[in-house]
Automatic annotation (TrEMBL):
This is Integrase. It comes from Komagataeibacter nataicola. InterPro entries: CB (IPR044068), DNA_brk_join_enz (IPR011010), Integrase-like_cat_sf (IPR013762), Integrase_catalytic (IPR002104), Integrase_recombinase_N (IPR010998), Tyrosine_recombinase_XerCD (IPR050090). One of its GO terms (molecular function) is DNA binding. Residues 164-342 form the Tyr recombinase domain.
Length: 352
C-alpha cells in the first residue's frame, strides 16, 4: 500500500479488507475495492457505522455483508468443496431478491416473494436448496448477534414439496455410444457407475489402494454423508470384476488425461453426450439422453429385479434410510415386488 500505511487495512488477493476493534469485538470485512484511497474512505465510513451500532444497538448489516462473512468464516473452513459450490450457486440466486436488503429486514414475507419469483422457473428441489442456504446464512447472523431470530425457520417449506420425476432407465445403446465417445478415464468411470451404483464423486476420487482384490470389495472413503462404507463389486445389480481387475494397482484409479481427478465429471460427461446426441440426430440414429445419476438408478432397479435384498441395497447405495431406497420399488412388477419384500440375498454391502 503506497503512502501512509494503515494497520487496519490489508489485502486478500487484489481486494482490500478492513479490520476494526469496536467495543471489545473484532470486525473484519471486505472493503470491495482495489483502490488504496477508496479503501481508507470506506474504512472510515464503516468505523462510523460500527461505533453508532455499538451505542444504539441498531444493526444495518446488508445481506451481501453477511454472505462475505459467512463464506470466509464458516464455509471456507467447515464444508466440503461440493457443498461450497452448491451454496455459492444458491447465493447467486438469492441475491436477486436480497441484495441491498438489511439482514434485520429479511422477513418471511420477503422469503415468500423469493419463492414466488422462482416457482415455475426451477424445480421445487432447487428452491428448497436455496432456502436451506439462506437459513444457514441467517443462523450464522443470529450467532453473530446481527439478528435475534432466523426468519427462514418460520417459513413453511411444506408448500414447496419436492416432486420426484418418474425414474427413466437409460437406453443401453445410448449408454454404449457415449462410452465409446468418452476419453478412457471417463469411459471407465461410467462403467464403474453402471456396475456398482456408486455416486459420481465416489468414483472420481477412488484410489487403487481402496480396492480389495482378494475380497472383491471397494472401500469408499469420500462419500456424500462423510461416512466410509465398503461395497462388494459383484452384486445382483452388476459386476465390476473385469473393469477392476485390469485397473491400475496404485494411485488414482481412473484419472483424466492429465493424470488428475476429474473436477466436474458430470459437466465433462454432458459435453460428450451433447456431441453424441447431435451426431446421432444428424445421421438419424436413435439416441436417448440420460444423466450420470440414471446409471445409479438402473443399477438399483436391476438389483431389485434380480431379487436382491432392499436393505442391503440401501446400505450399498449409502442411503441414510431405506425409505429413500423404496423409490425403486415403483419400477417392479407385482411378482418382482413380492419377491423383494419376502426374499433376501447374501450378496451386497458389508457394514464397515
Amino acid at each position: 500500500m503506497s503512502g501512509r500505511t494503515n494497520a487496519n487495512i490489508y489485502l486478500r488477493g487484489k481486494t482490500y479488507w478492513g479490520r476494526l476493534q469496536i467495543a471489545g469485538r473484532e470486525h473484519r470485512s471486505s472493503l470491495r475495492t482495489t483502490d488504496t484511497r477508496e479503501a481508507r474512505r470506506r474504512l472510515r465510513h464503516w468505523k462510523t457505522e460500527l461505533e453508532r451500532e455499538a451505542v444504539t444497538g441498531d444493526s444495518d448489516q446488508l445481506f451481501e455483508e453477511a454472505v462475505i462473512r459467512w463464506i470466509t468464516e464458516v464455509l471456507e473452513t467447515s464444508v466440503k468443496p461440493q457443498t461450497m459450490r452448491r451454496y455459492t450457486i444458491s447465493i447467486c440466486s438469492l441475491e436477486g431478491t436480497f441484495k441491498g436488503v438489511r439482514v434485520r429486514d429479511i422477513t418471511t414475507r420477503l422469503i415468500s416473494n423469493f419463492v414466488s419469483g422462482r416457482s415455475g422457473n426451477v424445480t421445487n428441489a432447487t428452491i428448497r436448496r436455496d432456502l436451506a442456504a439462506l437459513s444457514r446464512l441467517l443462523s450464522a447472523c443470529v450467532a453473530w448477534g446481527w439478528i435475534t431470530a432466523n426468519p427462514a425457520l418460520s417459513f413453511d417449506r411444506t408448500i414447496i414439496r419436492e416432486r420426484r420425476d418418474p425414474i427413466t432407465l437409460p437406453c443401453p445403446d445410448s449408454v454404449a455410444r457415449v462410452k465409446t465417445a468418452c476419453p478412457p478415464g471417463m469411459a471407465a468411470i461410467l462403467d464403474l457407475l453402471e456396475q456398482t451404483g456408486m455416486r459420481e464423486n465416489e468414483a472420481v476420487s477412488l484410489m487403487a489402494e481402496n480396492v480389495d482384490h482378494e475380497r472383491h470389495q471397494i472401500r469408499l472413503i469420500r462419500t456424500k454423508t462423510s461416512r466410509p462404507r465398503t461395497i462388494a463389486w459383484a452384486t445382483p445389480g452388476g459386476n465390476a470384476a473385469t473393469l477392476l481387475e485390469h485397473a491400475p494397482r496404485s494411485g488414482l484409479l481412473f484419472p483424466n488425461r492429465d493424470g488428475a481427478a476429474y473436477r466436474n465429471a458430470a459437466s465433462n460427461y454432458g459435453q460428450v453426450m451433447r456431441r453424441v446426441a447431435a451426431r446421432c440426430e444428424a445421421e438419424s440414429i436413435p439416441f436417448t439422453r440420460f444423466r450420470i445419476h440414471d446409471l445409479r438408478h438402473a443399477f438399483a432397479i436391476r438389483w431389485l429385479k434380480a431379487g436382491g435384498d432392499i436393505y442391503r441395497l440401501s446400505r450399498h447405495l449409502g442411503h441414510t434410510s431405506v425409505k429413500t431406497t423404496e423409490i425403486y420399488l415403483s419400477a417392479l412388477t407385482a411378482d418382482e415386488l413380492d419377491r423383494v419384500l419376502h426374499v433376501g440375498t447374501t450378496d451386497g454391502t458389508e457394514t464397515p
